[in-house]
Specification:
Four copies of one chain form a homotetramer. Chain A is of the alpha/beta class and 379 residues long. The first copy, chain A, folds into two domains: 132 residues, NAD(P)-binding Rossmann-like Domain (Rossmann fold, 3-Layer(aba) Sandwich); 191 residues, Dihydrodipicolinate Reductase, domain 2, CATH 3.30.360.10. Chain A has twelve helices and 14 strands. A nine-stranded mixed β-sheet of chain A has the order 13-12-11-10-6-9-8-7-14. In chain A, strands 2-1-3-4-5 form a five-stranded parallel β-sheet, with helices on both faces. In chain A, β10 and β11 form a beta hairpin. In chain A, α5 runs antiparallel to α12. The longest helix of chain A has 19 residues. Chain A is globular and about 65 Å long. Chain A starts with 8 loop residues before the first strand and ends with a strand. The relative contact order of chain A is 0.16. Chains A and C meet through β13 of A and β13 of C. β13 of chain A pairs antiparallel with β13 of chain C, so a sheet runs across the interface.
C-alpha cells in the first residue's frame, strides 16, 4: 500500500467551488491516500459561493478566503499554514495565483496547462528558480503505475534505443458544435480569449507530448504541426497532427483529436526501440504490452509478475484515473515532508515547472508551425 | 461528482492495523468521497500495535481502544460517537465484533464473508432484525457503476426474461502451494480452522453468486457443486464448479478458481435473456456489452451515452476497484444521514445482512452438495 | 506454405448439392491447398438436383451418381477411382453412406457428428477396424494452427500437469424460436427425429469436448450434465452445462449454449496446469495466450516467434475457419498419399473414427446424466 | 456462399515458381471459390525451375512457357486461351509483363505495387485505356467484407461527412537489419535497384492510402511526408509519417512502419465523420466498430446482424487474408464472365489500373515531400 507518511499535510485550494469538475478531482486525489487535509481555500471569485463551498468542505470560516492574494498573505503568516496550495482555477489565472503563493513561500500544486501563454510560463519558471519554492504540475498520466513502469523499462534498456514514439489522444466530445448550445466546458475550451491560442493541442496535445517525454526521457527538438478546427464556426483547433524530432534522431507523431466519434479519452502510447517495443492505453491502464524483439509480446500487469513500480491494490483490482492523480499528491507529500532527505525517486517522477514550460513551448511551436502551413519549427 | 453530503460522518474501525490489506482498502474507500473521518479504532489485538497504528492514522489516543468490546461500549456513550464501525478483522471474528456493536446501537460496515459459519450468520441476521441497527456488507463488486447499470437494464427488461447466468471468477495466486512457504494470505485462506469449511467457494464464490443475484434479481433455489483442492496437501477447495437453478426456472453456472494461471481477478458475468444478453468483466469495469437480440452488440461506457448510473469521472477516465468500494461507503453515508427520508435507491443497492446470510447459505449448500458427490442441494 | 504434394487426389462427395452449406465448406477446404479435385458425386437425393449440382461443379456426367450406393460400387471399379469420399449429408445418413464406401474400400472423410446414434457409431468403428480403410472425421477446430500449437505445448510440459479444462462454446442463433418461422437449419437441428436425442450437446458440445481432449490428451472418465431446452416448445436442449472428470484426476467444465445473445461461435478453451495455463478463442484464432506460472502472459501468434506449428500465411495475415478446415483436407491428402511412409504427425493429429465414437459416447452419457437429474455418468 | 458462376475460367501465371510466397497466395485465392483453373504459366526466369514448378502445379507441358513474351503470344492464339494472367513477378517486371499481355488482349491480374516507377505506371494506364483490356490490381485489403461494409456505410452517410482519416500500418520484420544476414524478402525490399525509390511507403504505405481512398471515396490532393530509414545502413525508408489533405477539406494521417516491435501486419483504419465514426483492424477483420455520434459504439460482425456485404461463412467462423484475396479473384471472374452485362458492383469495388497509378503517384509525392524536408506536395 503506497502512501504511508509520518505527518499529514495541510492543503489549500484556489478555485474548485461548487460545481467545478477538476477541483473535485484534486480533492479526491488529495484525500485518497490520507496524507492531505483541505484546511483553507479561495474557492470562487464569487464571495458568497466561496463561503458556501468552503463550509460544505469543512473549511473553517477564518480560512475561507475571498481572494487568493489575501489567502497567500494570510496563510504565510500562520504557524499552521498550509503546506501547499492546489490551483484549479480557469487556465488564464494559473500564473497569477501561482505567483502570489510562490512569493509567499508556499508550495504550489498547479493543474495543467501551467499557464495561458508562453510568456507567463517563462516568468513562472524564472520565479520558481529564483524562489526555490516547490512547484508541481499535475500531468495526471505520469501518475499511472504502468506509465512509470514503462519509463523504468525504457531507462534500463528493455527496448534498446528508442527510434519512434507515437502518441494518440482521441476524444469525441467536440465532434458536435456543443459550444453553440451552451455546454460550459465546450464554451471556454473553444474560446481563444479564455483558453489561449491553442485548443486541442493545448488541452490534450500537451498531455500527449508529456507522456512521450516522460517515458522515453528524450528531448524534443522540433515539431511540424497541422492544426484544424473541424467544428463549424470553431476558432480553436479540435484536431492536431504533429510530427516530432528528438535530439537523438528519434522521431515521432502525435495525433490529438476531440472530434473522433467512438473515442472518449483514448490516450495511447507506442514506442519502437531497436531491441523491442511497448504499448500502453490509458483506458486499460493496468496493462502494459512489452515485446522484446524476436519474442512474443508479454502482457505486464500492474502489481503482477516482475513489476518494479509500487501501487495500491493487487493485480486484477483495477486502478484508474483518480489513483493516478492521487499518486501525484502522494509524491508531492513525500517531496514536501522529506526536505532534508530529498526523496529522489519521487522528485524525479513528479512533473514540475520545467514540464509546464516545455508544454507551453510545445504548444507555441505547434501553433507557429501550423500557421506557417506545416513547417519544421524549433520547440 | 458523486458524494456531496451535508454532514461528515465518523468512522470507527476494528482490525486493519499496520500491514493489513483490507483495512487499508476500507480507509481509502471511506476517504475517497470525503464523507467519512476515521476517529476511533481497535486496530489490532496486540495493544502496542493497536496504539501505534492509531497514532499513524491520526486517531486520538482516547479513542484508540485495546479491544472491540470496550470500544463498542465507550463509543456508544459519547455524544460524538462514531456513526458506524468498519469490521476488517479475520473472518472468524466478524460475528463477535458485529454483535458487540449492533448491541451498542452502532451501525456496522462489515467486510465479507459476513461470518465464518452459517450458524453465526443466522444469529447475526436475527440480531439485525431485532435491533434495527443498519448492517452493511461490503460486497465490493456491486459498487461498480456498470454492474449497477446492468442491474437497471435487466430490471427494465432490456434483455427480456433471464434464462441463464454464468459467472466466472478466476485467480492464480494459489496455483503454487504458496502456503507452504509461509505466504500470509495463503496461510489463513487455506486453513479450515481460520477460514471455515469453504476455501475458494467462500472467498470468491460468494462474490460470484452475489453478483449474479444482484444483477438479475433472481432468487437461487438450489446448487450442485464440485469443489476441488488441487494444491498438493491443501485442505480447502481452490476450484469450484457450481450449477445453479433459480426460482423462475432460470439456470446458471459458477466457475470460481484460484489455480488458473494467467488470471488475476477475472470476475466475469454473462447473462442470457430471451430478448438480449449482457457481459461484464471486472478487469475492464467501465465497459458493459449489451446485445439486444437481432442487433449488433453495443458497448456501453461508464459516464457515456445513454447511461442511467452516476459515477465520479467522465467516460474514458477509468474508475476501478477502489472507486467501487468507495461507492459502498458513499451509499452507507447516504443511508445513515437520511434516516427520516429513506434514501431508497441507495438502500436497495447496498448489500446487507440478508446478502451475507445468503452467501453463507450458498457456501453451506455447495459444501453439502460436493461432499455428497455432486447432488442438487437446496440453498 | 503448407500443402505441396506430389500427386493430386480425387474427391467424391455425397450430399452437398445446391444450397447446402457444409458441402460448400468441404469443397472450399478441399480446393484451398490444391491437392484435391472433385470428380464424382451423389450430391442430392433428388436426381435432377443431383445432376444440376454436379454439372455446376464440373463433375463429368458419368460420375454424377443418382445414389450413394451406386456411387460406391461403381467408383470402386474404376481405375481412376476417387481417393476419398466426403460425406456431407444430413447426420442420420452418415453411418449408411460411410458403411457403403468403407465396404467398397474407399477412404471416408465424414462431417461431424459421425452418426446419429451411439449404436451406429459403434458399428462404424468396428467396420473401420475390420476393413482398415482410412476414416477421417472433420472436427474442424483441431485444424487451427494455434490449437495444434496448444497441444504441442501441453505435450512438452509447458504448463505442467493439467488440472482443469474449461471450454465454452456459445452461439445465439437459437435464442429466438426461429424453427417456428421455418428457418431450415433450425428446423432439423431442433427435431429429434432428424438430429437424434442431443441438440446443442451434440451439435457443438461434441466440438467442445473434442477440443479439450485434443489439446490435453486426457481421457474423459465421466460427466455430469444439465441439459436444458430454453426455447419455447423446443424438444432438444439448446443449453448444456457439463462437469468433467478425466482419468488423471483432472477436472473440467463445458458450457455449450445456442441461446446466448451477443455470441456467434464463441468457442473458447482455458487450461490450468500446475506450472502454467493457456487460453484460446476460436473467434480470434491466430492468438494463443500462454502463461508460465509466475511470469507475465505471452501472446503467441500464428507464424510468429517461437512457433512449432506450420501454417500458410505470415503472422498478422489472419487465417480462419476455412483454413482450419483445409488443413484437415491437406492432412488427409498426406495420409492417403504416404501409405508406405506413415505420415505419423498428420495421422496423430487427424480426428478419426475413435474421435467420432468418443463424441457419440459423450453425448449419450450427457443425455443419461441429465435425464437422471444430473448424476455422474461414465462415458 | 459467394462465388458460384456458370463458367470456370482459365488462369495463367507469370512468376510464382517454387518457393515464391505471393504466387502461392494468388493460387490459393484463385482456387478458393472454384472459379479458376491454373492452366498455363511462365513461372520462373530459370527454364528448369519454370518447368518443374509447372509440373508440380499440374500445368500441361505445352503451356509451361520459358518466358512471358512467348506465353502472351502463344496463349493469345489458342482457342482455349487463358481468361487472365496473374503477374506475381518481382515488382520491376510488372510493367513489362503486363504490357505484353495487354497487347495480346489478355486480361491482367497484377500484384501490387503496379509498377516500379511512376513513369511505367502512367504508360500502363495509357495502354489499358487504349486497349480496353481489363486490368485488376490485387489491393488485397479491399477484399475484406468489413472493409466493403465500411465503404457502403460511409457512402450511405452513416457517419456523415468525413472529416479525418487515420491509417496505421505497422510491422516489425525490419526492426532488425535482417537484410544483412541474407533474408531474401528483406534483401530486395531494402534494395532501391530492385524495389524502386520507396521502401516502406511503397510496400505498405500504398495499401494504407488505398484503404483510406476505398472506404471514404475521397480524392487525395496533397501529402506531407517524413520518411526515415532507421535500420543501420538501410537505404530505403522503413518508417513513414504522412499527413494527408483531401479535396473536400478532409484531412488524414498515415503511419506506416516496418520497425515497430510487437506488430505484425497491424493495418488499422479510423474514420471520423461529423455524424459518427468507424474503426477497423485487419488483424481482427470480421469486426467493424461503428459509432453514431451520441450513441454507444456498435460492434458489427461479418455475416452478422444488419450486414449489407456478402461473405462465405456465418458470423463467428473467421475469414481472413486468403478469403479477402479470393474475393478479388471471385470479383474478377464476375467481371470477366459478364462482359455484356457489366457486373457494376464488382467492377466498382475491384481495384484497377487507376488505383495502381494513384498508388505510384502517392509514393512519388511522398518521396518528393520527404526529400524536401517535409513540404506539402501535390499527388
Amino acid at each position: 500500500m503506497a502512501g504511508a507518511v509520518g505527518r499529514r499535510l495541510k492543503l489549500g485550494m484556489v478555485g474548485g467551488g461548487q460545481g467545478a469538475f477538476i477541483g473535485a478531482v484534486h480533492r479526491i486525489a488529495a484525500r485518497l491516500d490520507g496524507q492531505w487535509d483541505l484546511v483553507a481555500g479561495a474557492l470562487s471569485s464569487d464571495p458568497q459561493r466561496a463561503a458556501q463551498s468552503a463550509a460544505e468542505l469543512g473549511i473553517a470560516p477564518d480560512r475561507a478566503y475571498a481572494d487568493y492574494d489575501q489567502m497567500a498573505v494570510l496563510e504565510a503568516q500562520r504557524t499552521d499554514r498550509i503546506d501547499a496550495v492546489a490551483i484549479v482555477t480557469p487556465n488564464h489565472l494559473h500564473a497569477k495565483v501561482a505567483t502570489a503563493f510562490l512569493r509567499a513561500g508556499i508550495a504550489v500544486i498547479c493543474d495543467k496547462p501551467m499557464t495561458a501563454s508562453l510568456e507567463e510560463a517563462e516568468e513562472l519558471a524564472a520565479l520558481v528558480a529564483q524562489t526555490g519554492v516547490p512547484f508541481i504540475l499535475t500531468q495526471t498520466y505520469t501518475g499511472y503505475a504502468m506509465v512509470r513502469e514503462a519509463r523504468a523499462l525504457v531507462a534500463r534498456g528493455a527496448i534498446g534505443q528508442v527510434r519512434h514514439v507515437q502518441v494518440e489522444y482521441l476524444q469525441d466530445w467536440l465532434a458536435s458544435p456543443v459550444e453553440q448550445s451552451g455546454q460550459k466546458q465546450a464554451l471556454w475550451r473553444t474560446d481563444p480569449t479564455l483558453s489561449g491560442a491553442g485548443g486541442c493541442i493545448a488541452d490534450i496535445g500537451t498531455h500527449a507530448v508529456n507522456l512521450a517525454s516522460f517515458v522515453t526521457g528524450l528531448s524534443l527538438d522540433k515539431v511540424l504541426a497541422d492544426l484544424t478546427a473541424f467544428g463549424p464556426g470553431r476558432r480553436l483547433d479540435d484536431n492536431a497532427a504533429v510530427l516530432l524530432r528528438f535530439d537523438t534522431g528519434a522521431k515521432g507523431m502525435i495525433w490529438a483529436s476531440q472530434i473522433t466519434p467512438g473515442t472518449k479519452n483514448a490516450l495511447r502510447l507506442r514506442i519502437s526501440g531497436d531491441r523491442g517495443g511497448l504499448f500502453w492505453d490509458q483506458e486499460n491502464p493496468d496493462l502494459l504490452e512489452v515485446t522484446p524483439l524476436g519474442e512474443p509480446t508479454r502482457v505486464l500487469r500492474r502489481s503482477g509478475e516482475q513489476m518494479m513500480t509500487p501501487s495500491r491494490t493487487p493485480a486484477g483490482h483495477p486502478e484508474g484515473y483518480l489513483e493516478a492523480f492521487a499518486t501525484l499528491y502522494a509524491d508531492a507529500a513525500a517531496v514536501l515532508t522529506k526536505a532534508g532527505s530529498p526523496a529522489e525517486q519521487s522528485v524525479s517522477l513528479l512533473p514540475d515547472v520545467r514540464d509546464g514550460l516545455f508544454g507551453m513551448r510545445f504548444v507555441a511551436a505547434c501553433l507557429r508551425s501550423s500557421v506557417n502551413g506545416g513547417t519544421w519549427t524549433l520547440v
